[in-house]
Amino acid sequence: MHGCVVKPRHSRAYDRRLCSLRPVPATPSPMIPPFAGQADASATPPAAPDGAPDGPARAWQTPVGGLPGVRPALAEKAHSLGLATVGDLLTHIPSRYEHYDEAQNVADVVTGQEATVRVELASIRVVPTRRRKLVVVRASVFDATGRLEAVWFNQRHLLRLLTPGDTLMLRGVVEAGAPRQMKVKAHEVLGSGRSAGLHTQGLVPVYPASEALPTARIRELVDLARPWARFAPEALPTAVRHEHGLMSAADATVGIHFPRSQGEADQARRRLVVEEFLVLVTGLMAIRQAEAAEQRGLALAPTGAIGEPVRGALAFRLTADQERALEEISADMASGRPMRRLIQGEVGSGKTLVAVLAMCQAVEAGAQAAILVPTETLAEQHLGTLDRLLGPLGRMDLMPVLLTGKVPAAERRRRLTDLAGGTRRIAIGTQALLSEGVDFHELGLVVVDEQHRFGVHQRHALSERARSSGGRSAHILYMTATPIPRTLALTAFGDLVVSTIHGRPHGTGQTVTRWLTGDDRDEAYAEIRAQVRDGRQAYVICPLVNEGESESKAATAEYEMLRAGPLASVRLGLVHGAMKADEKRAAMDDFAAGRTDVLVATTVVEVGIDVPNATVMLIEGAERFGLAQLHQLRGRVGRGGHPGLCLVVADELTDEGQRRLEAFTQTNDGFRLAELDLRLRGEGAVLGLRQSGMTDLRYARLARDTDELELAARVAAGLLCDDPHLQHPAHGPLRAAVRRRFADIPRLLHA
Ligand code: ADP
Ligand code: MG
């Protein structure tokens, strides 16, 4: 592939963004040793599937029951494990390999060691034991150098399976005796049509299996399917494979199941991972590209008429990161192409202010702006912020319209009329804000707060819905307070452009975290009482409960306990998920206004509560929270000028929990914690992304395969830069694979 030249016909900003990800052209790719092409050398290729042009794809669909010698009962079992076709089998990759050595002469096997031998069966019998349930099968076996007694437990069926005269491969530990005996761990009969040494010699693959279909059966099925490996669908363009030293899909398929060395297995896996990532990332980038190209956006240029006075009234200056994020947003909104941007920044980093200033820009340009939030509490809070910032301008049209479930019908109708008529310019609401029946006069910007669990399909749907009356697509700004590791940003949010706000305006590292055991709890209560005496406030966070238990009940119990004892001297509030919305609000308001000193809460406070006077947080049962969540919680304190103190109490700790809490007490860096959380708990856990579908990866693991992902991202950007719709014939298979992966987004990569 040639170097990146931004061609005039792709001179749009999004193309530049894509292209800027391209690799420095001259870097030579590390060469891997050439592969002998195991797939091409396969012994018994299956009958060419009808010679039809779609033959390879059809061959891959061959049912498992159609493999030679597979009985219906076995096919049925495979089916129930999701292995219905040859393709399913060949993409069911080993979780690891047993490293067995080559077969030895019986005489050479060292007593006490595990070994593989190739022997002939002389005789086989069941020997009686005292324990009724225990069946011991013994066989006398030999080779040219000596004799062994092979022993199996509870495998009576071997009597039917093995016949004197059979040549066997046996793997097991050889023990002293006359003759010596081998406790057989794996065995196979040679000449049964299977590859010799399949279970007993060299690198033996171990598969995710079930009781009904153990790993050895899967191994045999995969071995039977091996000749089909040459029909492995290939999505990587040949040029990409050559440039980056990646083997063919066919070779990787053989190499992952039947590697001749660990190196070959690693290269095979790497190649499968790169392809998997490439399909995902290309799709996400193509969505981004298509939304920018196919949808016309409103060009909303800033006039400063609203933004300037709002900024002028602030008691502080924006941080450099805030300014940069705002400039990026501002340029996006003025561009005439729909913005799809994510701002990530920790709790308290000042995202909300940036979003409000972006809304000002939309309104200045004559459009309307809406902010979507996941909870009513957060809606109320944003209402407060907007009132505070915009109220002083004294403009009726800037008074935010609140639309939540609890607004009475008549009032709701009135508010909807105001929005449709354009007399009100700003709306706040939950998801329902963009449902049918809500019309805007000219919707210019949608801010989506704390909805990082949205999957790409939901984002795409939102993007389709968020249209202004003129059919132009509104700009969309997503905000998340969970720092996103780069691998997740590329895979889960690859359809968005990301702005990052680092740290907090007041400086990070101000909150000190201490880890207490249950015995030190009194110390924690004493600290809370002392800070309350100084005029500060505190949170007590209740542990997550087990499934089926009630979080709210647990919180109420905690509250009663504290009120009766350790915190009897302070004014206590309580908030939990089962409370009615207005009760919740009253509890939050009381706390925000300083009418209560300590708020006992479940994780409902995780999302977006801002009480600058709160300085202490006690987190009970900290071992139950993930790192990202702990960090979010901690972000609630130390937001004013006063230093924060976070006290975590954890008793029942696993090793992993121990490591998590150690990291948590040692760093305030949300990005480092997020990376660690990813490694410790896996991708689904970090952002609750499991439901987003972006982490349904067959081969790849985000915490491990960072390099492969970076490579895939560079390749994807390069391909889309040269060939935005992947129309070049060489890119056809990749395009098809992307369209299959993103089948819910029908017009993707249509020219
Ligand atoms: P986030 O939405 O990222 O959690 P907010 O925008 O709510 O953060 O900001 C947290 C607090 O910091 C608010 O009280 C806000 O007024 C204040 N703040 C925002 N930007 C700055 C700044 N540049 N300097 C000082 N305080 C700021
Ligand atoms: Mg916020």
Which helices and strands appear, and what pairs or packs with what?
Elements: H1 13-19, H2 55-60, H3 72-80, H4 86-90, E1 96-99, E2 114-127, E3 136-143, E4 146-153, H5 158-161, E5 167-175, E6 181-189, E7 203-206, H6 215-225, H7 238-244, H8 249-257, H9 262-294, H10 307-312, H11 320-334, E8 340-345, H12 351-364, E9 368-372, H13 376-390, E10 401-403, H14 409-421, E11 426-429, E12 443-449, H15 456-465, E13 475-480, H16 486-492, E14 497-501, E15 512-516, H17 521-533, E16 537-541, H18 551-564, E17 572-575, H19 581-592, E18 598-601, E19 614-619, H20 627-634, E20 645-649, H21 655-666, H22 670-681, H23 683-687, H24 706-722, H25 732-741
Parallel strand pairs: 4-6, 8-13, 8-14, 9-11, 9-12, 10-11, 12-13, 15-20, 16-18, 16-19, 17-18, 19-20
Antiparallel strand pairs: 1-7, 2-3, 2-5, 3-4, 5-6
Helix pairs in contact: 1-24, 8-9, 9-24, 9-25, 11-12, 21-22
Bound molecules: adenosine-5'-diphosphate and magnesium ion (MG).
CATH H level, superfamily name of the largest domain: P-loop containing nucleotide triphosphate hydrolases
* Morphology: globular
State the separation between the terminal residues, measured CA to CA: 23 Å
Query: What is the CATH topology of the largest domain?
Result: Rossmann fold
Structural class: alpha/beta
Q: Give me the Rg, rounded.
A: 32 Å
